[in-house]
Protein backbone atom coordinates (compact mmCIF):
# COMPACT_ATOMS: atom_id res chain seq x y z
CA UNK A 1 0.00 0.00 0.00
CA UNK A 2 2.77 2.39 1.02
CA UNK A 3 4.73 1.57 -2.12
CA UNK A 4 1.70 2.27 -4.32
CA UNK A 5 1.04 5.63 -2.66
CA UNK A 6 4.69 6.62 -2.91
CA UNK A 7 4.74 5.66 -6.59
CA UNK A 8 1.58 7.67 -7.29
CA UNK A 9 3.07 10.68 -5.55
CA UNK A 10 6.29 10.24 -7.49
CA UNK A 11 4.44 10.00 -10.81
CA UNK A 12 2.39 13.09 -9.98
CA UNK A 13 5.52 15.07 -9.13
CA UNK A 14 7.27 13.88 -12.28
CA UNK A 15 4.29 14.75 -14.46
CA UNK A 16 4.09 18.26 -13.03
CA UNK A 17 7.87 18.64 -13.30
CA UNK A 18 7.85 17.84 -17.02
CA UNK A 19 5.05 20.24 -17.85
CA UNK A 20 6.17 23.13 -20.02
CA UNK A 21 4.00 25.88 -21.41
CA UNK A 22 4.30 29.29 -23.00
CA UNK A 23 2.02 32.11 -21.98
CA UNK A 24 1.64 35.77 -22.82
CA UNK A 25 1.95 38.06 -19.82
CA UNK A 26 1.39 41.68 -18.96
CA UNK A 27 4.48 43.60 -20.16
CA UNK A 28 3.81 46.23 -17.50
CA UNK A 29 3.71 43.72 -14.66
CA UNK A 30 6.36 43.66 -11.96
CA UNK A 31 9.27 41.44 -12.94
CA UNK A 32 11.46 40.04 -10.16
CA UNK A 33 13.02 36.93 -11.68
CA UNK A 34 16.51 38.04 -10.65
CA UNK A 35 17.84 41.21 -8.99
CA UNK A 36 19.51 42.21 -12.27
CA UNK A 37 18.27 45.22 -14.22
CA UNK A 38 14.89 44.34 -15.70
CA UNK A 39 11.84 45.61 -17.53
CA UNK A 40 10.18 46.99 -14.39
CA UNK A 41 13.27 49.04 -13.61
CA UNK A 42 13.30 50.46 -17.12
CA UNK A 43 9.63 51.43 -16.89
CA UNK A 44 9.99 52.94 -13.42
CA UNK A 45 12.98 55.01 -14.52
CA UNK A 46 11.31 56.27 -17.69
CA UNK A 47 8.10 57.23 -15.89
CA UNK A 48 9.91 59.01 -13.06
CA UNK A 49 12.24 60.93 -15.39
CA UNK A 50 9.45 62.13 -17.67
CA UNK A 51 7.14 63.06 -14.77
CA UNK A 52 9.91 64.98 -13.01
CA UNK A 53 10.98 66.82 -16.11
CA UNK A 54 7.46 67.80 -17.13
CA UNK A 55 6.59 69.45 -13.84
CA UNK A 56 9.90 71.17 -13.16
CA UNK A 57 8.85 74.85 -13.34
CA UNK A 58 11.69 76.16 -15.59
CA UNK A 59 11.11 73.28 -18.04
CA UNK A 60 7.36 73.87 -17.94
CA UNK A 61 8.11 77.52 -18.74
CA UNK A 62 10.31 76.50 -21.69
CA UNK A 63 7.54 74.41 -23.21
CA UNK A 64 4.66 76.74 -22.50
CA UNK A 65 4.48 78.33 -25.93
CA UNK A 66 6.83 76.24 -28.05
CA UNK A 67 8.14 72.73 -28.46
CA UNK A 68 11.91 72.79 -27.91
CA UNK A 69 14.08 70.47 -30.03
CA UNK A 70 16.17 67.94 -28.12
CA UNK A 71 18.57 65.19 -28.93
CA UNK A 72 19.49 62.22 -26.81
CA UNK A 73 23.23 61.78 -26.42
CA UNK A 74 23.58 58.58 -24.45
CA UNK A 75 23.31 57.10 -21.03
CA UNK A 76 26.60 55.65 -19.84
CA UNK A 77 26.27 52.22 -18.38
CA UNK A 78 28.57 52.19 -15.36
CA UNK A 79 27.09 49.05 -13.86
CA UNK A 80 28.80 45.67 -13.93
CA UNK A 81 26.07 44.11 -16.06
CA UNK A 82 24.98 44.56 -19.64
CA UNK A 83 22.13 47.06 -19.82
CA UNK A 84 20.73 48.39 -23.06
CA UNK A 85 20.66 52.04 -22.02
CA UNK A 86 19.44 53.10 -25.46
CA UNK A 87 16.25 51.25 -24.69
CA UNK A 88 15.75 53.41 -21.58
CA UNK A 89 16.35 56.63 -23.48
CA UNK A 90 14.08 55.44 -26.30
CA UNK A 91 11.22 55.00 -23.84
CA UNK A 92 11.91 58.41 -22.29
CA UNK A 93 12.04 59.98 -25.73
CA UNK A 94 8.76 58.37 -26.81
CA UNK A 95 6.99 59.64 -23.73
CA UNK A 96 8.36 63.15 -24.12
CA UNK A 97 7.32 63.28 -27.78
CA UNK A 98 3.86 61.92 -27.01
CA UNK A 99 3.36 64.57 -24.36
CA UNK A 100 3.28 67.08 -27.19
CA UNK A 101 5.79 69.27 -25.38
CA UNK A 102 9.07 68.35 -27.05
CA UNK A 103 10.51 67.48 -30.44
CA UNK A 104 13.58 65.41 -31.10
CA UNK A 105 16.28 65.04 -33.71
CA UNK A 106 17.79 61.60 -34.00
CA UNK A 107 21.57 61.60 -34.19
CA UNK A 108 21.72 57.83 -34.71
CA UNK A 109 20.38 58.11 -38.27
CA UNK A 110 22.37 61.11 -39.49
CA UNK A 111 24.35 59.10 -42.07
CA UNK A 112 21.27 57.50 -43.55
CA UNK A 113 19.46 60.84 -43.69
CA UNK A 114 22.47 62.34 -45.48
CA UNK A 115 22.46 59.48 -47.99
CA UNK A 116 18.77 60.06 -48.65
CA UNK A 117 19.29 63.81 -49.10
CA UNK A 118 22.16 63.20 -51.51
CA UNK A 119 20.04 60.74 -53.43
CA UNK A 120 17.22 63.27 -53.68
CA UNK A 121 19.54 66.11 -54.69
CA UNK A 122 22.15 64.45 -56.89
CA UNK A 123 20.82 61.22 -58.36
CA UNK A 124 18.65 62.88 -60.96
CA UNK A 125 15.88 60.45 -60.10
CA UNK A 126 13.82 62.73 -57.89
CA UNK A 127 11.51 65.54 -58.98
CA UNK A 128 13.32 68.61 -57.60
CA UNK A 129 10.08 70.34 -56.70
CA UNK A 130 9.51 67.60 -54.10
CA UNK A 131 13.11 66.96 -53.07
CA UNK A 132 14.09 67.78 -49.49
CA UNK A 133 16.58 70.62 -49.40
CA UNK A 134 20.00 70.48 -47.79
CA UNK A 135 20.65 72.77 -44.88
CA UNK A 136 17.06 73.01 -43.71
CA UNK A 137 17.22 70.79 -40.64
CA UNK A 138 16.47 72.32 -37.28
CA UNK A 139 19.31 72.45 -34.80
CA UNK A 140 18.75 70.88 -31.41
CA UNK A 141 18.57 73.32 -28.54
CA UNK A 142 18.99 70.84 -25.70
CA UNK A 143 20.81 67.59 -25.08
CA UNK A 144 19.68 64.73 -22.83
CA UNK A 145 22.40 62.56 -21.34
CA UNK A 146 23.04 60.60 -18.19
CA UNK A 147 24.49 57.73 -16.22
CA UNK A 148 23.33 54.42 -14.86
CA UNK A 149 25.43 53.17 -11.97
CA UNK A 150 25.07 50.37 -9.47
CA UNK A 151 26.42 49.16 -6.16
CA UNK A 152 26.23 45.42 -5.59
CA UNK A 153 26.80 43.78 -2.23
CA UNK A 154 26.42 40.14 -1.38
CA UNK A 155 27.04 37.55 1.26
CA UNK A 156 26.20 33.86 1.41
CA UNK A 157 22.46 34.29 1.48
CA UNK A 158 21.73 37.84 0.30
CA UNK A 159 22.42 39.93 -2.77
CA UNK A 160 21.64 43.61 -2.63
CA UNK A 161 21.71 45.76 -5.75
CA UNK A 162 21.33 49.51 -5.73
CA UNK A 163 20.83 51.31 -9.04
CA UNK A 164 21.01 55.01 -9.61
CA UNK A 165 19.90 56.56 -12.86
CA UNK A 166 20.74 60.19 -13.51
CA UNK A 167 19.48 62.18 -16.46
CA UNK A 168 20.42 65.75 -17.36
CA UNK A 169 19.04 68.31 -19.76
CA UNK A 170 21.74 70.62 -21.06
CA UNK A 171 21.30 73.82 -23.02
CA UNK A 172 23.73 73.33 -25.92
CA UNK A 173 24.34 77.01 -26.53
CA UNK A 174 24.86 78.16 -22.96
CA UNK A 175 26.20 74.90 -21.50
CA UNK A 176 23.81 75.26 -18.58
CA UNK A 177 22.16 72.18 -17.12
CA UNK A 178 18.51 73.18 -17.09
CA UNK A 179 17.23 70.09 -15.28
CA UNK A 180 18.58 66.97 -13.67
CA UNK A 181 16.61 63.99 -12.42
CA UNK A 182 17.53 60.93 -10.40
CA UNK A 183 15.86 57.62 -9.78
CA UNK A 184 17.11 55.14 -7.21
CA UNK A 185 16.15 51.47 -7.15
CA UNK A 186 17.07 48.93 -4.51
CA UNK A 187 16.58 45.21 -5.05
CA UNK A 188 17.45 42.47 -2.59
CA UNK A 189 17.46 38.76 -3.17
CA UNK A 190 17.61 36.54 -0.12
CA UNK A 191 17.62 32.78 -0.21
CA UNK A 192 15.10 31.07 2.02
CA UNK A 193 15.90 28.12 4.24
CA UNK A 194 14.97 25.49 1.67
CA UNK A 195 16.43 27.31 -1.28
CA UNK A 196 13.02 27.77 -2.87
CA UNK B 1 2.31 4.08 7.81
CA UNK B 2 3.17 6.70 10.42
CA UNK B 3 6.75 6.84 9.18
CA UNK B 4 5.52 7.24 5.63
CA UNK B 5 3.25 10.10 6.66
CA UNK B 6 6.14 11.74 8.49
CA UNK B 7 8.12 11.68 5.27
CA UNK B 8 5.32 12.88 3.03
CA UNK B 9 3.90 15.57 5.31
CA UNK B 10 6.84 18.02 4.99
CA UNK B 11 6.76 17.59 1.21
CA UNK B 12 3.06 18.37 1.11
CA UNK B 13 3.58 21.35 3.42
CA UNK B 14 6.20 22.73 1.05
CA UNK B 15 3.87 22.26 -1.92
CA UNK B 16 1.06 24.00 -0.06
CA UNK B 17 3.31 26.88 0.90
CA UNK B 18 4.42 27.42 -2.68
CA UNK B 19 0.81 27.29 -3.84
CA UNK B 20 -0.05 30.05 -1.37
CA UNK B 21 2.53 32.39 -2.87
CA UNK B 22 0.46 32.90 -6.04
CA UNK B 23 -0.36 36.57 -6.56
CA UNK B 24 -3.45 37.79 -4.80
CA UNK B 25 -5.21 40.25 -7.08
CA UNK B 26 -6.98 43.09 -5.38
CA UNK B 27 -8.46 46.15 -6.89
CA UNK B 28 -9.07 49.56 -5.46
CA UNK B 29 -10.14 52.10 -7.95
CA UNK B 30 -10.30 55.80 -7.38
CA UNK B 31 -12.04 57.63 -10.13
CA UNK B 32 -11.81 61.36 -10.09
CA UNK B 33 -14.33 63.08 -12.27
CA UNK B 34 -13.26 66.49 -11.05
CA UNK B 35 -16.10 66.93 -8.57
CA UNK B 36 -16.25 63.96 -6.28
CA UNK B 37 -14.24 60.89 -5.51
CA UNK B 38 -15.58 57.45 -6.25
CA UNK B 39 -14.11 54.43 -4.59
CA UNK B 40 -14.50 50.94 -6.01
CA UNK B 41 -13.22 47.74 -4.53
CA UNK B 42 -13.59 44.08 -5.35
CA UNK B 43 -13.59 43.37 -1.61
CA UNK B 44 -9.99 42.19 -1.64
CA UNK B 45 -7.87 42.01 1.48
CA UNK B 46 -5.60 44.73 0.17
CA UNK B 47 -8.50 47.06 -0.55
CA UNK B 48 -9.76 46.64 3.01
CA UNK B 49 -6.37 47.61 4.44
CA UNK B 50 -5.67 50.47 2.09
CA UNK B 51 -7.58 53.70 1.81
CA UNK B 52 -7.26 56.90 -0.16
CA UNK B 53 -7.21 59.80 2.26
CA UNK B 54 -6.95 62.67 -0.14
CA UNK B 55 -6.47 63.41 -3.82
CA UNK B 56 -4.98 66.68 -4.97
CA UNK B 57 -4.66 67.75 -8.57
CA UNK B 58 -3.36 70.72 -10.46
CA UNK B 59 -2.44 71.64 -13.99
CA UNK B 60 1.25 72.07 -14.66
CA UNK B 61 1.86 73.40 -18.14
CA UNK B 62 -1.49 71.94 -19.33
CA UNK B 63 -0.68 68.53 -17.88
CA UNK B 64 -2.80 67.09 -15.09
CA UNK B 65 -0.60 66.48 -12.06
CA UNK B 66 -2.01 64.35 -9.29
CA UNK B 67 -1.06 63.47 -5.77
CA UNK B 68 -2.97 60.81 -3.89
CA UNK B 69 -2.43 60.21 -0.18
CA UNK B 70 -2.76 56.52 0.59
CA UNK B 71 -3.13 55.18 4.11
CA UNK B 72 -2.22 51.74 5.33
CA UNK B 73 -4.77 51.01 8.04
CA UNK B 74 -3.15 47.67 8.85
CA UNK B 75 -0.57 47.41 11.60
CA UNK B 76 1.90 45.50 9.41
CA UNK B 77 3.89 46.48 6.35
CA UNK B 78 1.96 46.53 3.09
CA UNK B 79 3.79 45.69 -0.12
CA UNK B 80 1.75 46.30 -3.25
CA UNK B 81 1.72 47.76 -6.76
CA UNK B 82 -0.30 50.63 -8.12
CA UNK B 83 -1.04 51.93 -11.53
CA UNK B 84 -2.62 55.15 -12.71
CA UNK B 85 -4.86 55.14 -15.74
CA UNK B 86 -5.57 58.39 -17.51
CA UNK B 87 -8.67 59.21 -19.54
CA UNK B 88 -9.62 62.01 -21.88
CA UNK B 89 -12.89 63.93 -22.04
CA UNK B 90 -14.54 61.22 -24.14
CA UNK B 91 -13.48 58.45 -21.77
CA UNK B 92 -10.68 57.04 -23.92
CA UNK B 93 -7.76 55.70 -21.93
CA UNK B 94 -4.53 57.51 -22.77
CA UNK B 95 -1.38 55.54 -23.52
CA UNK B 96 -2.80 52.40 -21.89
CA UNK B 97 0.30 50.36 -22.62
CA UNK B 98 2.80 52.81 -21.26
CA UNK B 99 1.62 53.04 -17.68
CA UNK B 100 3.62 50.58 -15.58
CA UNK B 101 2.71 49.00 -12.27
CA UNK B 102 4.76 50.80 -9.65
CA UNK B 103 5.93 49.24 -6.44
CA UNK B 104 5.09 50.76 -3.07
CA UNK B 105 6.04 49.48 0.38
CA UNK B 106 4.21 51.15 3.26
CA UNK B 107 5.04 50.69 6.94
CA UNK B 108 2.22 49.70 9.26
CA UNK B 109 -0.31 52.46 9.94
CA UNK B 110 1.42 54.98 7.74
CA UNK B 111 0.60 57.32 4.91
CA UNK B 112 2.33 57.74 1.57
CA UNK B 113 1.85 60.18 -1.26
CA UNK B 114 1.92 58.86 -4.79
CA UNK B 115 2.40 61.34 -7.58
CA UNK B 116 2.00 61.13 -11.31
CA UNK B 117 1.78 63.34 -14.34
CA UNK B 118 -0.63 62.74 -17.20
CA UNK B 119 0.99 61.54 -20.43
CA UNK B 120 -0.46 64.42 -22.43
CA UNK B 121 -2.66 67.52 -22.00
CA UNK B 122 -5.90 65.79 -23.04
CA UNK B 123 -6.13 63.89 -19.74
CA UNK B 124 -9.03 65.07 -17.60
CA UNK B 125 -9.71 62.04 -15.40
CA UNK B 126 -7.71 59.29 -13.75
CA UNK B 127 -8.13 56.04 -11.88
CA UNK B 128 -5.77 54.48 -9.35
CA UNK B 129 -5.61 50.70 -9.42
CA UNK B 130 -3.79 48.65 -6.83
CA UNK B 131 -2.86 44.99 -6.59
CA UNK B 132 -0.61 42.81 -4.49
Task: Describe it.
- The complex is a heterodimer of chains A (about 200) and B (about 130).
- With about 200 residues, chain A is of the alpha/beta class.
- Chain A has a domain at about 40-110 and about 135-190: 3-Layer(aba) Sandwich (Rossmann fold).
- Chain A has helices at about 1-20, 40-55, 55-60, 85-100, 110-120, and strands spanning about 70-75, 105, 140-155, 160-170, 175-190.
- In chain A, helix 2 (about 40-55) crosses helix 4 (about 85-100).
- Chain A is elongated, with a radius of gyration of 25 Å.
- Chain A starts with a helix and ends in a 6-residue tail after the last strand.
- The mean pLDDT of chain A is about 90.
- The termini of chain B are far apart.
- Chain B has helices at about 1-20, 45-50, and strands spanning about 30, 35-40, 50-60, 65-70, 80-90, 95, 100-105, 110-115, 125-130.
- Chain B has two helices and nine strands; from the N terminus they run H-E-E-H-E-E-E-E-E-E-E.
- Chain B has a single domain (about 25-130), classed as Sandwich (Immunoglobulin-like).
- Chain B is of the alpha+beta class.
- In chain B, a hairpin with a 4-residue loop joins strand 1 and strand 2 (about 35-40).
- Helix content of chain B is about 20%, strand content about 50%.
- Chain B is globular, with a radius of gyration of 20 Å.
- Chains A and B meet through helix 1, helix 2 and helix 4 of A and helix 1 and strand 8 of B.
- Chain B: It comes from Alcanivorax dieselolei (strain DSM 16502 / CGMCC 1.3690 / MCCC 1A00001 / B-5).
- Chain B: Pfam families: DUF1425 (PF07233).
- Chain B: This is Lipoprotein.
Amino acid sequence: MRVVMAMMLGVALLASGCASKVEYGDPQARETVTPDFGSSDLQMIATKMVDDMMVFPPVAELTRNRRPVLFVDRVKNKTSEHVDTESITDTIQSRLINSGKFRFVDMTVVDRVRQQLEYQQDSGMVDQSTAAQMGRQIGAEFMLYGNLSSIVKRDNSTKDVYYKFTLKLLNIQSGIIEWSGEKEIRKTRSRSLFGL
Amino acid sequence: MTRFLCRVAPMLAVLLLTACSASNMSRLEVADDGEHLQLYSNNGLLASRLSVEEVRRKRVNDLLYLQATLENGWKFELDFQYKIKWFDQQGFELAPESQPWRQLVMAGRSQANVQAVAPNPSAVRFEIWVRE
